[in-house]
Amino acid sequence: MDRLRDLIDRLVRADSRLPVEARAARVMADEIRAAGLEPEWTEVAPGRPNVCCMARLGPKPGFVTFTGHLDTVLDAEGWSTDPLQPTERDGKLYGLGALDMKSGLACAFTAFRRLIEDRGRHAELGTIGFAATVDEEAYGTGARALLGTKYGKSDLMLLTEPFHGSGPDDAVPFVMPGKVLYRVVVRGKSSHALCHPERGINAVDDAAKIVSALERLELGSHPVLGRMNYSTLKIDGGYREYSVVVPERCEIIVTRLLAPGETRQGAVGELERLVAGLGLASTVTVEARPPSYEPFEIDPDHPGLQAFEAAYRVRLGRDPSIGGLLGISDANIYQGEGGIPTIIFGPKGRGLHEKDEYVELDSLAPVVDVLVDTTIRYFETGI
Q: Exposed site from 7, 100, 206, 263, fewest CB < 10 Å?
């Protein structure tokens, strides 16, 4: 596994804090060339490339893509090591993105390369792909761009986010909520706030009534995920420079999770009806703004999930912990929007979006083994 560890080290050193992923993309492009393939370098925004490759290994039908993201969040304060210098201590590798998700991305490519190099297996396989994408930590631009390419025709995605299946707190998520980001614009009428406030329509007052009414939203629920939630993120209205004027405009930003079966369009309609029932004097518009995502739930009988569970049992000697996650990932794009069944499984560690993030080094080899075995078993099902 020396090649895998070297790749992780190089990725951690390649600063890819949003929105500058090109350094890490070049690392992956070099790795693809070293495997004898030509990387597909596609800028989805200026200086922000997805890097992909594909190999038709054998005659079997089906297309499996290994994938992960290149970007990291900004480093938190208080690191005890240099966050861009991989540091090993007590079986753990520390570094920004070591867990989320440069180790997973390296595992995905290592599994892809192993299948290419195992020529004795090619007759049992079909087409495999690898995709390193940008912007997962923000808007999902890279994943959405990937859906519009040949990789969007994949039959199965293996997304190596750091969910290892080791227990209920580290479950492999087969169901995830979606998310709508509401932008509510309240338009009133200005007037002198001391002499004649009654001549105006106070947009801030009406915005406050809307925020107070949000608790009446009929939030969805799921037997695994539980009840969905919402949070008001921003209220922006009133003067920029102090003036005694009734505010004529106010903007509200609210994030809301969606259970499987709910949609962004339905959620917008529900809030529109709620606002209409308040009898406000202001004019109010409601829309879904990026980033918004669809929920998803993989069928427990899907051959990809069954192949994964069988491979996990063989390689790790136990059943994976399968559950749900109140969060968002590129799987919401691949499966929720693209309809591609997506299995989320990767290395184990701690510190997502925190200081002193680390990956447990002894979890890496089993991830590669399970990914390889899952792919072989999946093609064996005769898709």
A: 263
Confidence of residue 129 (pLDDT cuts 50, 70, 90): very high
Residue in the structure block whose two tokens are 């992956």 = 28
Instruction: Give residue-wise pLDDT tens across range 212-263.
Output: 999 999 999 999 999 999 999 999 999 999 999 999 999 999 999 999 999 9
Q: For residues 51 and 106, is the Cβ–Cβ distance under 8 A?
A: no
Whether 382 has a pLDDT exceeding 70, the answer reads no
Mean pLDDT computed over 322-331: 94
Omega before residue 177 within 30° of 0, cis? no
Residue 39 vs residues 23, 42, 142, 152: alpha-carbon distances, Å: 15, 9, 16, 17
Matching CATH number, 179-293, of 3.40.630.30, 3.40.50.620, 3.30.70.360, 2.60.40.730 = 3.30.70.360
Q: Is the N-terminal amide bond of 223 cis, ω within 30° of 0?
A: no
What angle is formed at CA 24 by the lines to CA 18 and CA 30, rounded to 5 degrees? 160
Q: Which pTM was predicted?
A: 0.92
Q: How far is it, in rounded angstroms, from Cα 10 to Cα 84? A: 10
